[in-house]
């Protein structure tokens, strides 16, 4: 199986558990991997036969910025379900980092893998 991926997608949004976080935007960084078969697209050099990463990026940014959320876990799960529901992929890996969250760490985050059931 092949993979279409996006690394370090920057999304500025309202995210966090604490009251002070609900009035500011913070940056999330997303790594997305979508399992798919790219062989036909490659053979025919045809964007219509693969997953367009530009379309995926815009859709994911739209989803995340649509409403405030508390947990990065919720972001990861919602993004995974969107990718499985709207794009031709059987399995996705979604990592969400919140680099500003911990002063003592470069970054924090979660990674999930979800498959079409
Ligand atoms: N597992 C998680 N732990 C924490 C989260 C989270 O989303 N998932 N969020 C926070 C706060 O919002 C924090 O980022 C504020 O700096 C704390 N722990």
Summarize this structure briefly.
The protein is of the alpha+beta class and 117 residues long. The chain is 29% helix and 32% strand.
Query: Termini separation (Å)?
Result: 17 Å
Number of helices: 3
**SSE order in H/E notation?**
EEHHHEE
The figure for the number of domains is 1
CATH H-level superfamily title: GTP cyclohydrolase I, C-terminal domain/NADPH-dependent 7-cyano-7-deazaguanine reductase, N-terminal domain
Count the beta strands: 4
User: What fraction of the residues are assigned to beta strands by DSSP?
Assistant: 25-35%
Q: Identify every distinct bound molecule in the structure, by name, code or SMILES.
A: ligand LV4SOB2L
Output the structural class. alpha+beta
Strands across the major sheet, in which order? 1-2-3-4
What overall geometry do the principal axes of the alpha carbons give?
A: elongated
**Class in CATH?**
Alpha Beta
Quick check: average pLDDT?
98
What is the CA-based Rg, rounded? 15 Å
Low-confidence stretches: none
At the fold tier of CATH, the topology name is GTP Cyclohydrolase I, domain 2
Share of helical residues: 25-40%
Major β-sheet profile: 4 strands, antiparallel
Q: Which architecture does the CATH hierarchy give at level 2?
A: 2-Layer Sandwich
Domain Dihydroneopterin aldolase/epimerase: 4-114
GO cellular component, one term: cytoplasm
Catalytic activity: 7,8-dihydroneopterin = 7,8-dihydromonapterin; 7,8-dihydroneopterin = 6-hydroxymethyl-7,8-dihydropterin + glycolaldehyde
Family: Belongs to the DHNA family.
